[in-house]
Amino acid sequence: MTANSSSDDSKMTARDRNRILKILESNWQAEMRGYHTYEILAERESDPARRAAFHTLAQAEQHHAQLWFERIRALGGPEPVYNGPRAGEADTLANRAGGVRLALRRLELDESRDIAKYAKQIKELGDEPSVRILEQALQDEREHYRTLSGLIRNRRPIAPSSPEQAKLALDELLAARQEDHPKAAGWVGDAIYGINDGLGAIFGIVSGVSGATLGNSKFVIIAGMVGMIASALSMGSGAYLAAKSEREIYEAEFSREREAVENNEAEAREVLSLSYQIRGLPQEEADRFVEHLAKDKSQFVRTLAQERLNTTEDGLRKPLTSAISGALSTAIGATIPVVPFFFLSGYPAVVVAAVVSLLAHFAVGAAKSLITIRSWWASGLEMTFVGAVEGIVTYFIGIAIGRISGAGI
């Protein structure tokens, strides 16, 4: 530490010192948590290149933690003690359930949050030595984000290279871009949202009819099953039309890009090169990549269309698959509130149906965290609360309708 920084530290007020120490302690904890996360992922990784990448990330996080430790000590703060899990974020329920690919996406999001956090601290911290550490850490975190992005898409980070290495990087880039988002995650998301819609809609129907008929099983089952069929057909047909529209839009965009290449290939090359440069590639390499792409006109057109729509033909949903998935998942969710009325009637059936439905709401909400990257308990409680409000409101509305119509008497 320089004499100037020591002098600045001595002039710092106790309030400012405590505020800064609190921030530095939080930064240290976050870096240590990242270190443990990457180390555990490295231990479990079988691919040598990915394992080496995880070790590199872990060492960088450990280095950042050491810098924060030294600054905390220089400010006279207590030695920080790591209070997080020994496996970092590697063993959280969401990461375990979602697999390595989803865990990497969560880490990628965490890195982006760290970038935003450190950028904000640079402006607000007011401690020059800490700001210098922040600037170094911020640069490293941006590199971590790019590394994780490459691991997610199964490609190595692109660096200045020879023409042969550039061609290899291009091939990896194209393969990763064609891969788009994981198919499994998309399918899981469609299924979860289908169950969510079916459960919510039929739970409201069951609650309302129960209130109107005092839990008459016959009426509840009829209303619930008819509602289930209608919801499933509606969801299935909607998913089919949405997937079909996506394909039609892609085909139209593909046709427009093909005409653009035929009419003005030079401009099309410039557009694609600029799109790569925006993503961080040097101009020379971007131009070289585009030159390689242009040798195959069909591939060139597909890449241009992909840039417009941020997807590939392989990444588009299949209409029939989407229809079946949407209809079945909605039917499964819609059946849950009705099942208790096959075995019970009256108020016991209403109570059991409410309990089962709310538990299902919590389970579906927790499962949604795999897609939305929220904490499972917060997502589950939120959906349970929404389901409870829906059930109570529709139940009392049903009671009112029953009294008016005489159905409940």
Written overview of the protein:
The chain has 409 residues and is mainly α. Helix content is 81%, strand content 0%. It contains 14 helices and no strands. Helix 6 crosses helix 10 and helix 13 packs antiparallel against helix 14. The longest helix is centred in the middle third of the chain and has 47 residues. The protein is flat and about 80 Å long. It starts with a helix and ends with a helix. About 7% of the residues have low confidence.
Annotation keywords:
single chain, 409 residues, flat
How is the biggest beta sheet arranged? none
Could you tell me the number of beta strands?
0
Structure classification: mainly alpha
pLDDT under 50 segments (min length 5)? 155-170, 176-186
How are the SSEs ordered, and which strands pair?
Elements: H1 3-11, H2 14-44, H3 48-74, H4 93-124, H5 128-152, H6 163-179, H7 183-213, H8 217-263, H9 265-278, H10 283-294, H11 297-309, H12 319-335, H13 346-372, H14 376-405
Helix pairs in contact: 2-3, 3-5, 4-5, 6-10, 7-8, 7-12, 7-13, 7-14, 8-9, 8-11, 8-12, 9-10, 13-14
